[in-house]
Specification:
Blueprint: H1 6-12, E1 16-22, H2 26-40, E2 43-49, H3 51-59, E3 66-69, H4 71-79, E4 89-94, E5 96-101, H5 112-121, E6 125-128, H6 132-144, H7 147-150, E7 154-157, H8 162-167, E8 173-177, H9 178-183, E9 188-193, E10 202-208, H10 215-225, H11 231-237, E11 239-240
Parallel strand pairs: 1-2, 1-3, 6-7, 6-8
Antiparallel strand pairs: 3-10, 4-10, 4-11, 5-8, 5-9
């Protein structure tokens, strides 16, 4: 990113980019914001909610310049005229993982049978009751045929606090996106990712507001977040670039 001269920087310092994103990407994106602000002089104001809440609040009129949420929700917002058509780009994906309190006993979840055994043996399991990950996990229990045995042990956690709840001892295990587990260290440890056969990656995309107060600044932030320069930082925080970020999403036909 080219650095601005002093006059350009002075002007940019008065500008604020409103970033509205899903809680699951918060740890990864926050690790990048200060670099972007230093390089450009812009200020980034952030707000985080669960994926369905992001869409609902934007539909209700929540002002934003840039949004990061599930691709289908970004597309829905584009159809509604909330996101600028053609601004949608892939950001990355996050794997599902299992969390435990740091210092706990080693746990094998490397195979489907080991994963099922770990869930059935746990005293309690925290999950995101309102988020994308929680919906997938509930369906997975049914698919594995262990719903009746495991569901009485489930502890519903709201507001993106699933991993911290494990750290506080409110549940023995937690099922949540890997980014949230890594961000909760050192109180919480990542037991492991779901077995490959059961893994469900949560995809994220970026869209620019159709009513942005500074679409050019929002575009710069979008390009920064999808650039190869930040891939390693995102990977360390749990975001994978399975689809080359920066590629325009293909809109599904109606």
């Amino acid at each position: 990113m080219d650095r601005m001269d002093r006059s350009e920087r002075s002007s940019a310092m008065t500008q604020e980019i409103r970033l509205f994103g899903a809680i699951a990407v918060r740890p990864a994106v926050l690790a990048l914001i200060s670099q972007f602000e230093t390089d450009t002089g812009f200020t980034v104001a952030v707000k985080w909610e669960l994926n369905p809440v992001v869409k609902k609040q934007i539909e209700a009129g929540e002002p934003f310049d840039l949004v990061i949420t599930n691709p289908n929700l970004v597309e829905d917002l584009a159809v509604l005229g909330k996101v600028k058509a053609g601004s949608e780009v892939a950001f990355g994906r996050i794997a599902m993982g299992v969390a435990a309190k740091a210092g706990g006993r080693p746990l094998d979840i490397g195979s489907v049978e080991a994963f099922k055994h770990a869930l059935k043996s746990a005293r309690s399991i925290a999950y995101a009751s309102e988020g994308t990950s929680g919906g997938y996990f509930s369906g997975l229990l049914e698919r594995l045929g262990i719903a009746d045995e495991v569901k009485p042990k489930l502890v519903a956690i709201s507001g993106g606090q699933t991993a911290p709840a494990v750290g506080r001892g409110e549940a023995e295990l937690g099922v949540v996106p890997v980014t949230s587990i890594l961000a909760a260290a050192p109180e919480v440890m990542l037991v492991g990712r779901f077995p490959a056969e059961l893994q469900s990656y949560i995809d994220f995309a970026i869209g620019i507001s159709a009513d942005s107060t500074d679409a050019e600044a929002a575009r710069q932030l979008s390009e920064f977040l999808t650039s190869t320069a930040v891939d390693d930082i995102l990977a360390a925080k749990g975001v994978e670039r399975h689809q080359r970020a920066g590629v325009t999403l293909k809109r599904a036909s109606s």
